[in-house]
Design goal:
Blueprint: H1 2-46, H2 51-56, H3 63-72, H4 82-102, H5 113-128, H6 133-153, H7 156-159, H8 161-233, E1 237-242, E2 247-250, H9 252-260, H10 272-275, H11 281-293, E3 297-305, E4 308-321, E5 324-334, H12 336-379, H13 384-409, E6 416-417, H14 418-433, E7 439-444, E8 448-449, H15 451-471, E9 480-489, E10 492-499, H16 516-527, E11 531-535, E12 540-547
Parallel strand pairs: 7-9
Antiparallel strand pairs: 1-2, 1-5, 3-4, 4-5, 6-8, 9-10, 10-12, 11-12
Helix pairs in contact: 1-3, 3-4, 4-5, 4-6, 5-6, 5-8, 6-8, 12-13, 13-14, 13-15, 14-15, 15-16
């Protein structure tokens, strides 16, 4: 990855080095061509027939190469091929150096210009053509090789070895100077390239940061405008304070409230105690508590405006920044109408509860009147069967009246304490039938049920207990009746009424219509959507499983 990055960087530098050098190279070639032309024209005009001037004119052979080099700098499609183009042009110059040198005769005047001309060519190569450093070195070496070969072939080495080595020394010296100049130019341009690249990168980063910051500022401004518009659209009174209790924002609703109550509107930046001198120390303490603990605080406050009492709900909401509470927003909402509605609902609820209690009380009294009428009817009648029937009806009515008695005395009108109700019912039945000869044992788990559940359970208990007292103990020895109530599974209850009496006859059946009481028990168990289980061991035991009828039937299975 690092080598690949280095290659890309070197390639980018070569392109930068060559493209950035085009203006300077163009000007340098132009000036060289102009100076060369002016010097040649001067020799033609001043020394028209001198042999040196004729020899000098041979150097025009590189003029086309210089012209082509200048033209190429203006053709942008060729810029990506500049490296190859300049190699070809400079190889042509090598050919020109060899051609001029091989045709030079040391016996002619002007031949001493040749080595000077070659030195200028080498200097031009290193100065003007900004090719890769290694390429320039190789082409310069080829030019020296062409110069050396030409001087060997034109017999300069053989005829004048001193002149040959002396000129070669100057050419190599110029090559070395050009080498150093090219090396320094390359390093300077590389440093410039790296600095420019770094500056370009930093500039791009800076532009990106400026763009992001501008976007952030714009977003913040839009957010702030939206924030203010949102607060202004809320009809509640809202103000925001900082940690010094200075007001930061108030919304339009609160500004209108200030105008109506003669409070200054321009309050941003002022202490809350200056704007609202009537503010209590308790309110300031609540604000400080929100700053300290960062929890929203909801309170109620009663205010007086224009001789009218207004009940306000006050919310103090923390505003965080970097997990620290920097501001607190206070929202005051007029709850006066809602307070009136709540008070009215409470009043109606209390009145309704009083009415319901009164209804239950009257139902209980009416049932008591029915029982009294039945007793009056029995006084003038000696029929024992009628006495038994009316006594059973009376006990059923008493079980119903007892429910309304419990509802009348209960704190919750939609719940009946089933354990207390069953204990009272069992006590009444025991006092009615047995006196103290039968022992009643109760184990009742406290639970509340609806009247829809309590009424059939009470009638079932009434029938089973009445039958036990009437038929279970004909011999009246070791008599005991037990009543148990407990939860079996979540909201599933089990009521068990058992005795240690003589037991049920073999012909007993719940489906028999001969026993009205057992038929009623069966119907009531079905009404409860419950189950009944009968055991004949050591007497008789009835177990009724049921659930509170307020629950949905499919919520809790009996099994």
């Amino acid at each position: 990855m690092r080598d690949q990055h280095g290659q890309e960087l070197r390639k980018e530098f070569r392109e930068f080095f060559m493209i950035s050098s085009l203006p300077g190279m163009r000007i340098g070639l132009f000036l060289t061509l102009i100076m060369f032309s002016c010097f040649a024209l001067f020799n033609v005009l001043v020394f028209p027939n001198s042999p040196e001037q004729l020899y000098y004119n041979r150097f025009w052979i590189i003029s086309p190469v210089m012209v082509l080099s200048i033209i190429v700098t203006y053709i942008k499609p060729l810029h990506k091929w500049l490296h190859l183009v300049y190699i070809i042009l400079n190889l042509l110059i090598c050919v020109a150096v060899f051609y001029v040198g091989i045709n030079s005769d040391l016996s002619n005047k002007g031949s001493e210009y040749y080595y000077a001309w070659v030195m200028l060519v080498i200097i031009g190569l290193f100065v003007f053509y900004k090719m890769p450093f290694l390429t320039v070195l190789i082409i310069g070496f080829l030019q020296i090789a062409a110069f050396t070969l030409a001087n060997i072939l034109n017999h300069t080495l053989a005829m004048h070895p001193f002149f040959f080595f002396n000129n070669l020394f100057f050419v190599v010296a110029i090559y070395s100077i050009g080498f150093m100049m090219a090396y320094m130019f390359k390093n300077l341009n590389r440093k410039n390239f790296l600095h420019q690249k770094a500056l370009s990168k930093n500039n791009l980063q800076l532009l990106q940061e400026i763009k992001e910051r501008k976007m952030a500022v714009d977003a913040f401004q839009r957010s702030e405008i939206q924030y203010h518009n949102t607060l202004d659209s809320i009809p509640d009174w809202i103000y925001v304070v900082d940690r010094e209790f200075r007001i930061v924002i108030i919304n339009s609703a609160l500004k209108d409230g200030h105008l109506h109550n003669g409070v200054p509107v321009d309050v941003v930046g002022k202490l809350i105690t200056e704007v609202y001198p009537f503010i209590t120390s308790a309110t300031l303490g609540e604000l400080q508590n929100v700053f300290d603990h960062g929890a929203m605080l909801v309170t109620g406050q009663k205010m007086s405006f224009n001789h009218t009492d207004v009940y306000m709900e006050v919310r103090k909401v923390p505003i965080y920044k970097d997990r620290e509470v920097i501001q607190v927003m206070t929202i005051l909402r007029d709850r006066s109408k809602e307070k009136e509605v709540e008070e009215l609902k409470q009043k109606n609820s209390e009145q309704k509860e009083i009415m319901l209690r009164e209804i239950h009380h009257r139902v209980k009294n009416n049932l008591a009147i029915v029982i009294s009428l039945l007793n009056l009817q029995l006084r003038n009648n000696t029929d024992s069967d009628l006495h038994r029937i009316i006594r059973d009806i009376e006990m059923r009515i008493r079980s119903m009246a007892l429910i309304h008695e419990h509802l009348y005395r209960s704190e919750n009108l939609d719940r009946i304490p089933l354990a207390s109700y069953l204990h009272s019912l069992a006590t009444i039945i025991t006092g009615t039938f047995s006196g103290n000869r039968i022992n009643l044992v109760t184990s009742l788990e406290p639970t509340d049920v609806s009247i829809e559940t309590a009424l059939p359970v009470g009638l079932i208990a009434n029938e089973l207990l009445t039958n036990a007292f009437k038929y279970a103990f004909p011999n009246q020895q070791f008599c005991e009746i037990q009543v148990h109530l407990h939860k079996e599974n979540n909201e599933v209850f089990a009521l068990k009424i058992s005795d240690n009496g003589v037991g049920l006859p073999d012909s007993f059946s719940l489906d028999s219509e001969k026993s009205l009481g057992m038929f009623i028990v069966k119907l009531l168990v079905e009404q409860l959507d419950g189950e009944i289980e009968i055991s004949r061991q050591n007497g008789t035991s009835f177990t009724i499983r049921f659930r509170n009828l307020l629950l949905k039937k499919h919520d809790i299975p009996l099994n």
